[in-house]
């Protein structure tokens, strides 16, 4: 299957990163979001990010920012996805929201179009089950910031076909990203481990074992991590951390995934990290 036009659903931090990364690799992109203001904000942020990459990356961009952004069209209507060859969905980690998205686009996109679920915890097989194309559904878990991260967690659901996997791996190869295939289980590999680490770090702050700064300093100084777990949580978004933990807690029925009360309190207070300028740190 030839892929040249890709639909990207959701213009938040990850969605706009996916759109930018695909456009940098010469794909035509249709970026869809329910809010026009979010699309305007996403385009402005992509322009800033591209100009910064052009200034500071050792490897210069093949095209200028204007050319790359010219490959991205935006829309608030899902019908704009009618002629795409591949879809990457990036909406919130909420099953009710995701289900509605897939039930809608399954009727709009032509048969054979692959649906890639960009999720950190929602089971791919569950998503596939609400479509009429379960063999064409898989997970592509992109990491933030998408244009700068070279590896993607590729999740094979129960129904995912070899052909679908090959199309997705070919797409990643065209964007100079390596796909690592894992099997479908809540949290997969990256978030099954990472979310527990971040959550336990939150418990350490909550229980006054150490400050957020000292927790992160130890992970960077003792283990050589580029970022500590709480800095990572702020980058991902504390609401996303909470949603991911909640999905795994409900899926595994295991108390080790119980979100820290401090995490819930910060999300309730809209202290979500970098995207709100305040989380465990001020930005």
From TrEMBL:
UniProt keyword terms in alphabetical order: Oxidoreductase
Q: In which pathway does it act?
A: Lipid metabolism; butanoate metabolism
Q: Where does the 3-hydroxyacyl-CoA dehydrogenase C-terminal domain lie?
A: 187-283
| Source species, domain of life | Bacteria
Task: Indicate the segments forming the 3-hydroxyacyl-CoA dehydrogenase NAD binding domain, all copies.
Answer: 5-184
Query: SUPFAM superfamilies, from UniProt?
Result: 6-phosphogluconate dehydrogenase C-terminal domain-like (SSF48179), NAD(P)-binding Rossmann-fold domains (SSF51735)
Question: Pfam families from the xrefs?
Answer: 3HCDH, 3HCDH_N
Similarity remark: Belongs to the 3-hydroxyacyl-CoA dehydrogenase family.
- The entry's protein name is 3-hydroxyacyl-CoA dehydrogenase NAD-binding domain-containing protein
**Species of origin:** Streptomyces peucetius
